Amino acid sequence: MNAPTTYEFGANKNYKIMSEIINDSTNVANNATSMNNSNDVLLNYIGRIITLAMLQKKGYKIGRLAGNRTFDEKIVKAKKKSLKETGLLVPAIIVEAEKAIAEGLKVVDFETEEPVTDENAKYYVVLVDANHRYKAHLQLLKEEERYDGEFSFMLPLQDISVAKMLSEINIATNPWKTADYGKGAAMMLKEELPLLTAINSLTEKGYSIESASMWLTFEKKITKAVLANAISGTIADSLRDDKDIDRGLKLLQAAKKSFSEDFLKKRLIPDWIITKQKKFEDGKSAFIKKMCNFLAGIGRETADVIEKSKGSRGGDTKETIVNRMLNNLWEEYGS
Questions:
Q1: Which of 140, 173, 206 is the last residue of a domain?
Q2: Most CB atoms closer than 10 Å: which of 72, 132, 136, 288?
Q3: pLDDT at residue 69 above 70?
Q4: Overall pTM surpassing 0.70 (yes/no)
C-alpha cells in the first residue's frame, strides 16, 4: 500500500490522509487487519478514510441520531443514481456513539431502529451527515447484484460537540428543509418545550416556520435562526413562551372549517388575524372567541373564492385582494 500522505489542518495539527483506492479490496483488508491488531482507539484514525468494510471488520455497527432528518425517498433515489454513476465522492462524517450519548443524544441502529444504549454504544459509530447517502448505499447492496461500491467515513477534524457539528454541517453548509430545523432542535435539547413541539407538528405538515410561528404565537418571533441557535444549545426566551399555543390552535381549527389546509399553511390568514387582534379593544380572549366564530362561519364556497383570488402585474397583489375580502367580511360580521 502507498505510504500515507501528511497534511496540516487547523492549529498546526498533522493528520494522515490515506492515499488508498477505496475500492481496492486488498487495501481494505490490510487496513481492517491493522485496525484489529492495533491497540489504538478509533479516535486515532482522525483524518483517515475509514471504509465500511474496515469498521465492520473491527466489529462496529452504524447508528444514527434519533430524530435526525426524516428520510425523503426522492433524495434517496437521487443518491442511488449518483452512487451507481460516480460512487461515493466524499466520505461521511461519523462520531463514536459513546460521545453522542454522553452529550445526551439518543442514538438508534441505522437499520433496525433499535435504541443504542450505554451497554452496547462501544460497538457503534454514528452518522452525523450523509444519512440519505448511506441509506441509498444499503438499498443498492440489496437491489443491485452488480453494485460493488464501497462506503467510506471520516472522523471530524475538530473536537467540538455533536450538536455544534450537526448545526454547522446541516445548516451552514448543507441547508435543511423547513421541518428539519425544529426536529434538529428537539433532538438536541434536553428539556421539553411545548412551543417547539407544536411548531414541529405544523411544519411536518408543510407549514412554513413563519406561518407556524404566527398561528402559535401571534408574532413572527420563531425563525430559522432561533431554531438553529437552539440546536447549538442557545434557547431564546421566545421559544419558551407557550402562552398562546391553545388560542392559536383554536383559531386554526376554526379556520379549517372554511379554508383548505394548504391555504392555511401560508402566512396570509394568520398575518391578517394578527393585524385584527392588535386593533381589538376587548381583550384577547374575547377576540379569540369572536374570530373563531367568524372563521368557521365564512363557509367553504366563500373561502374558495378567497383562495383562488389572483394578483395582477401593475395592480393589486394577491395579499391585498385577500385582505380586502376578509376585511369586508369582518366588517359585515361585526355590524
A1: 173
A2: 136
A3: no
A4: no
